[in-house]
Amino acid sequence: MTDTDYTLAELCITAAAEAWRDAGEVLASGLGLVPRLAAGLAKLTFSPDLQMTDAESLLVAEPVPVGKRGAYQVQVEGWLPFRKVFELLWSGRRHAMTMPTQLDRFGQINISYIGGTFEKPKVQLLGVRGIPGNTINHPCSFFVPDHSKRSFVERVDMVSGAGYDPARWQDGVRRDLHSLRLIVTNLAVLDFGGPDHAIRVRSLHPGVTLEQVEAATSFPLVRADDLHATPTPTAEQLRLIRTVLDPHDLRATVFK
Amino acid sequence: MADKRRTLPDVVAELRDGMTIGIGGWGARRKPMALVREILRSPLRDLTIVSYGGPDVGLLCAAGKVKKLLFGFVSLDLIPLDPHFRVARQAGSLAVMELDEGMIQWGLRAAMLRLPFLPTRAGLATDVERLAPELKTVVSPYDDGERLLAMPALTLDAALVHVDHADARGNAQILGPDPYFDDLFCGAARKRYVTCERIVETSAFAEHGCLHTLVLDRGMVDAVIEAPFGAHPTSCTPAYGIDLEHLKAYGAATTPEAWAEYRARFVDVDASAYLAAVGGADRVAAIPAPIF
After folding, report:
1. What is the ipTM of this complex?
2. Of the candidates A128, A171, A178, which has its C-beta nearest B147's C-beta?
3. Exposed, middle or buried by CB within 10 Å (0-12, 13-18, 19+), for B87?
4. Could you tell me the pTM of the whole model?
5. Quick one: which of A37, A64, A127, B33 is 20 to 30 A from A31 by CA?
């Protein structure tokens, strides 16, 4: 197998799995196809103690393959209805990766609406869902499949998820439970390791330049001292993605 | 012992314009849709709705019943956003309070426990608190001095939920994989209306599921209404799954003409005509449980 024998989706899944390295015994929630496959890959490789669900109400001992299940039997190890998910996430025992529509330089994310006003949005999105509680209580990471000035914006239209803007944090509010970790995009891997949690480019996907990432971002980025190429998937990672986690190749639909 | 069996029109006749109504279930799962359609057929208006929203909210929006909506999402699950909700929002026709999912749980729990609020961190440092000026913070009186959001009690005039089985006294059994927050909706409401797939003898509960399936006790329920397939097109697993085909047709009916046609076919009809229009009992019962 040559170095180039993988798809962009597979590269992103592999890079995103790193969010859960050394996470220990916490619930790994990947919301969206790439995040979900990434969480599964982390569990099957370097973070076997991760807890996972069937994306409904069951805790499962191994990641459930996405798509049609055929003869696959879900390996149930517990029960996690929404009320227990909420208790668990408020207790901090979770690391979630979600797919924000907009993200700003503070890592504030928007999944609520775009354009117009809150009273009359131009485009209604999902609504805040559980993002306010997630972001303020446990580690969160993000996957953005279209790294552009439309997604990496100067100012989000609505702050659905808490970020590092100091003006947003009233005196006395606990900030130590809030921790934004990785941002994986179609171009690069970023984190919040710059001064005052500024967003930093950690690695560039093969063939992508820093200038290209900067041109696709509406705010300044910090360059990591050890800026490197995003590691490409190993043969074993590709085998797990292709034959165990996503046997129907749903990931082929991520980047058209 | 009180016999709480009622009909859909009986229950809707007890509701009033301007009421705050909580609706159980979650997204496209176990929603009291027969009761929602009965509300659509009534002259009720100016409702404030609290819901983990799905087509319940979408239908009420499409019919112009909603004055204000408290929501964290309005989703058809397999379709991420309810198209009728989207249309109503983009027309600016609803007053809204956008809340974290956990804040809704907390508001209902506070109401159930007769507390003015419950503290939480959810919503702090986001626009949720900025866009709802009625939300206040409190400072812990203990040494930690932490500032928390004081989620106010969401007291409901009425709660509507759908379950698998109920007895005539109002005890109710949920067989599906998640009770969602139906007990909190009932706990937070002055009047509690429960539709069910089937009214059973009290002694029959044990045949259908373990003790943990007995989620609502009769002190939490004012009326039970037998409404077979009453959650359709949402799921009521294990009895039936989400009717994605129907939800697609529903979601496509956002123009005035298409909505009028949908309404004539699926809303302004009685229960037997509805069931026939959606393909009959055998078809609905055969819809598999959803895979997420």
Report:
1. 0.96
2. A171
3. middle
4. 0.97
5. B33
